[in-house]
């Protein structure tokens, strides 16, 4: 039931963004974390929060709408951590080299040129988590594009003690992407703060997943996600999941 409701929300938001012409390149936005007109303003608003200012290491999703925020992270000479798209590999850690060319380094096509590949064992402790969103609600609900990579990243980082319940989870969206409510499943990661082109919104505190919930992982998902596959191997849980089928 929850998954069907979330699917309907995604489809409605993707359609509305195209119909209202608030979507930006790449288009069409269906199937993506949608880029939007006003993403730079939303990023600026979020960057003025105390949470952003206090953060030294910021983990950010690799999608287009958060490129302006990634640029602001680098312009502020903070450490930026970005995952390989679809968790095909490891993370890119961006520091001094990226600080010299923040706009270029913030683009997904340039991550490998400006960032250093880092294994999950060597990731520094994170002060702020930025996720991409298709829709959010004012009570902290969030829905992505339905593939679960943000949830997997968060769960692995949480298990390693690199984030905890106090580390804020934030996002930027267009105001048209704000909906009344979003059902949350046990593995979903709610947002604490979101910014639109119109302003900043803080949400009521909701508990976040404390790690991977193996019962929700399918062998197909694991085998199609190299980062997750390697992590489960190293933590001795791969066979336990694969034996379920």
UniProtKB/TrEMBL annotation:
One of its GO terms (molecular function) is ligase activity. Pfam families: 5-FTHF_cyc-lig (PF01812). It comes from Metallosphaera prunae. The lineage of its organism: Archaea, Thermoproteota, Thermoprotei, Sulfolobales, Sulfolobaceae. It comes from the Archaea. Keywords: Ligase. One of its GO terms (cellular component) is cytoplasm. This is 5-formyltetrahydrofolate cyclo-ligase. Gene3D superfamilies: NagB/RpiA/CoA transferase-like (3.40.50.10420).
